[in-house]
Structure formats: structure tokens, C-alpha cells
Amino acid sequence: xxxxxxxxxxxxxxxxxxxxxxxxxxxxxxxxxxxxxxxxxxxxxxxxxxxxxxxxxxxxxxxxxxxxxxxxxxxxxxxxxxxxxxxxxxxxxxxxxxxx
Length: 100
Prior knowledge:
Blueprint: H1 2-23, H2 37-44, H3 46-80
């Protein structure tokens, strides 16, 4: 599994580096023409900054709500399993002796 993950990491990193390199070039420009002007223009636009902040807020709120909801649901389901079948695993097979 490690060789496959290593290959995927190399491919992903190569694509990311290539995309970043291209993002600093003007359209049809050479590598010597690279500058952060496009990024500066993007982040100096108030509409873009507002949209980015809004997106990050929505992402943070939805992540926290999903995590809290998932934990509460897991605790509720765990509490229901404390009946006569609490000694069974989720697939219905009995637990080995001494493993509680």
C-alpha cells in the first residue's frame, strides 16, 4: 500500500507544482515573465475576499455541525445497543471470551 500511496503523492504533488507554476505566468508568457501580479489583483478585489471569507465561514460551521451531530448520533446509537445484544459485534457475530 505504501508504494501506491507514494506514487499517488508524487503525481499529486507534480500536478500541484505545475498548476502553481502556471498560475504565476501571464497568458502566453515565458517562465521569465512570472510574477505574482495575478494573485495580488485577485486578493485585492473586495468581492473576491468577501466571497472567500463567506466560503470559509460556511465550511467551518458545516464541519463543526457535522462533527457534533455525528458524535451525538453515535452516542445515541451506542446507548441503544446496551440491551441484551450488547455483547455482540455490529455484524452479529459473538465477541470472543474475555474481550469486553
